[in-house]
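Weekly modeling sync, notes
Attendees: S.R. (lead), two postdocs, one rotation student

Agenda item 3: backlog of single-chain predictions. S.R. asked that every request posted to the team notebook include the full sequence so nobody has to chase files. The rotation student volunteered to paste the first one in as an example of the format we agreed on. Action items at the bottom.

Example entry:
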Amino acid sequence: MSAIDNLPPLRAVIAANDLRAKKSLGQNFLLDLNLTARIARAAGDLRACDVLEVGPGPGGLTRGLLAEGARHVLAVEKDARCLPALEQIAAAYPGRLEVVNADALALDVESRLTPPIRVVSNLPYNVGTELLVRWLIPPRWPPFWQSLTLMFQKEVAQRIVARPGGKAYGRLAILAQWRAHASIVMSLPPEAFTPPPKISSAVVHLERRETPLAPADPDVLGRVVAAAFNQRRKMLRASLRGVAPDIEDRIRIAGLDPTMRAEQVPIEGFCALARAVAKGG
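Predicted structure, as returned to the notebook:
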C-alpha cells in the first residue's frame, strides 16, 4: 500500500501496465508518493481549486494532488499507455479527476476548468519551457491560472528565478518575473526518478501578479529582450541596433547607459526601454 491512499504502489502500477518511460516523450517517472505529495503541498491550498496537470504519466503527482484535497484535477496525457492507470485513480476519487488523452500544446484547457485554477505538473522535459512561455504570454492578463508549480531541469529552474548580473539571467527570467513572483521550492536528485535523468530537477512556484511588475507592451518588450540577449556580450547600443535607428537615444530616455550589457539591466529597465522604443515609433 502507498502512504497517501489505498491504491497500489507506483512501481506495481508501472509493472502491471508495462509503462516503460519513453525518451521521445520526455518521460521520467517520479515514484515516491511522499515526494509527489510535497509537490502538491507546494502549490498551496488546493481544496477550493481546479488543478491542471500536464503529463501525469502513471499518476504519482495526480494522486498527491487528489490526496491534498484538490477540488477537481484535469490530467492531460499524450501517452495512451498511461490511461488505464489514470482511470484507476479516477475510480478511486469519483467525480474529481478528468483524464484527457491529448497534446497539451493543442488543447483548450480553459473551457474544462473553473476558477480559481492552479497548474501543477512534472512537465515532460521536451515541452516544459514552451508550455511555461505560453502560460506567461497569453493574449490577456491576468491569465486563467492563479499559480504555476512546475518541475524542470534544475538549470531551467535557475534561469526562471535568476537575478540580473549572472549568466543564468535572460529572457526566461524576465518573462517569468515580469508577470509573476517566482521561487524554487524544492530540488530533486536524479535517483528520485525512473529512469534517472542525467541532471537534477527542481520545482518552481510562480504566483501571478495581478498587474505586471512595470508597464510595457508585451510584444515590444519581447522584441527588445530577445534582441538584447541574442548578443548578450555586446553593449546595448550594439545589440539593439536593429530595434530602432536612434536606439542610443531610446536607451538614454529609458534611464540606461548604452554601454550596459543585457545581463546588467533589471526587469524594470527593460520595461522602460520597451516604453521608450514604443514611443519612438
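Discussion: group reviewed the output briefly. The mean pLDDT is 94.
Action items: rotation student to repeat for the remaining queue; S.R. to check formatting next week.
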